[in-house]
């Protein structure tokens, strides 16, 4: 099997020289978040074995790799969601704008407002559509008064591409929406608190292809305002939505590069094997 | 990574086509058909056994309820005697209402003039009848000096005779009721001066040695006060403990130990809690005996484990995705619990709470230890007044020798069951309301 046959069809190939200059430019982009030597232990079991990774501002970083490789674990380190797991220990340094997120000066609650998250399974609160989106701004005191809150809810729903579908039924429960709509509601809920980074943990794995396409378009639009990290099992999706891709395998980050580069010219044998579908 | 590649190749190798596999022919064999029939037969047998068990349980329940209703229904009626009472101002001034009533009764039996005969007539009236008359005069003093038709309570023996509690065909010595009383009752019945009406006394009065004056009013108030104390203590403490243990406490040996102890406490015989109450609340803190306050405290200790366990189960049942969603947008752990987890767990918590309350309402043993088993005539007005509760009242009445207490015991059981059904109904309604809100 050749490498080329494994390249997702949607990927637009450009001349190699162009890609090289892009790579150089990309490397120079400022990093919104940086991870250095991140190790994670669940009890005695080590899930991550020292990850070094830069997450650049206003770009989409895709984390790919076979199941159990630690990509979701890494994602959950970025907003300290791992804190809630009993027996989970994180070593190394993760910084947001140069500040250690595991440092004493950083509050997990504030961090999670700055680094929002969208989960694998759509998990709207069993409340109205309006309350789902308004919850974050309410608890953080981001909107003063009813009108401002309405405004935030409307903007968030519009950005999530859901406004047209739900504007007449904001009082209905969020759980009454379809799966794809629920996931967009969760994205609206996440962006309502104006985070700087959005983490997405396989956001489309529970959705049908049409809903997936919707979300992927949305991710591309959101890139203008947010830094996005997305975990996905779907390599076409990684190729379609991301600018950079990191390949994880058995708790290690094998390789991280421009998405085009990873899919056309992977340097590591394991990456090549994975993207050509030989395992994973 | 060659191992991975090889593994993959093996998976891609086409497997033998299913039609040629020996498994297929086995699925069509006679032996398989036999096994299939046996499996269906086993299923039918199981269903039949299940249905039979349900039917048996229903039958026993119907028998139990039927026997209680049959025994207790008559207690909701009481027998009253009609008297033409002339309210002589001199006797009223002396508060000699007994004499007034007796005079009116003698007037209905002009042929009875001897002392023995009149004593029989005196016994037809309840010893509480004069107080009824006194209360009537107190309500309307203008009655003094007039002649009025009044209906006063009959003695419990007469009441039982009218209801068929005594066998008339037995000789006087075995019947337990004299021929003279039977004759006098029959005469009153014939003249229409004896009638049955709804027994309000049963609901309003406190306990009494005289069955016709005894009621469960005091016990109901005592039960309510006790339950109030129990609820005020065990609900907030129980839910807070459950939330802390389930959502915040670290999982280590200490919390394991606490969990094991809570589970054990739920299985501790209730009388042990009574002993604890006796030693701690009465002995050490010197709280009043027989008081709903102490009863409530003891019941709170008893119901706490039940509420904690039920609440923890309800909290555990809330999907973790809701917690993640809330934490993911920066809600603090407490906000996550208060805004999302607790409301979702509320129906389950309420159910557990009501089950705990129902158990407290029906509990007798621990209250025996703290003196709530006393004979108390007055209806309690506060948490420190002497009181008794419904199940203890039932227990005490069941011990009384008078025939009339038998039916009152059954009636009190019916009322207790009614209150329990009301409580459970409230639980169901509350559940529905909470579920609709979410």
Order of helices and strands of chain B: HHHEHHHHEHHHEHHHHHHHHHH
Classified by CATH, the class of the largest domain in chain B is Mainly Alpha
Question: In CATH terms, what is the architecture of chain A?
Answer: 3-Layer(aba) Sandwich
Helix content of chain B: 55-70%
CATH topology of the largest domain in chain B: MetI-like fold
Note the main sheet of chain A: 6 strands, mixed
Number of helices in the DSSP assignment of chain B: 20
What would CATH call the architecture of the largest domain in chain B?
Orthogonal Bundle
Percent range for β-strand residues of chain B:
5-15%
Structural class of chain A: alpha/beta
Q: How much is the average pLDDT of chain B?
A: 87
Low-confidence parts of chain B, pLDDT < 50 over ≥5 residues? 1-16
Set down the secondary structure blueprint:
The complex is a heterodimer of chains A (280) and B (438).
Chain A: H1 16-28, E1 31-42, E2 45-56, E3 60-64, H2 71-78, E4 88-96, E5 99-100, H3 108-114, E6 115-118, H4 129-140, H5 146-159, H6 163-166, H7 179-191, E7 197-201, H8 209-222, E8 227-231, H9 235-241, E9 244-249, E10 252-258, H10 259-264, H11 269-275
Chain B: H1 2-12, H2 22-27, H3 30-72, E1 77-86, H4 89-93, H5 97-108, H6 115-122, H7 129-139, E2 147-153, H8 156-163, H9 172-175, H10 179-190, E3 194-198, H11 201-204, H12 217-248, H13 253-266, H14 270-284, H15 292-316, H16 320-328, H17 333-361, H18 365-369, H19 390-398, H20 403-437
Antiparallel strand pairs in B: 1-2, 1-3
Helix pairs in contact in B: 3-20, 5-7, 12-15, 12-17, 12-19, 13-15, 14-15, 15-17, 16-17, 17-20, 19-20
Protein name (chain B): Phosphate transport system permease protein PstA
Region (Disordered) (chain B): 1-26
Domain ABC transmembrane type-1 (chain B): 220-426
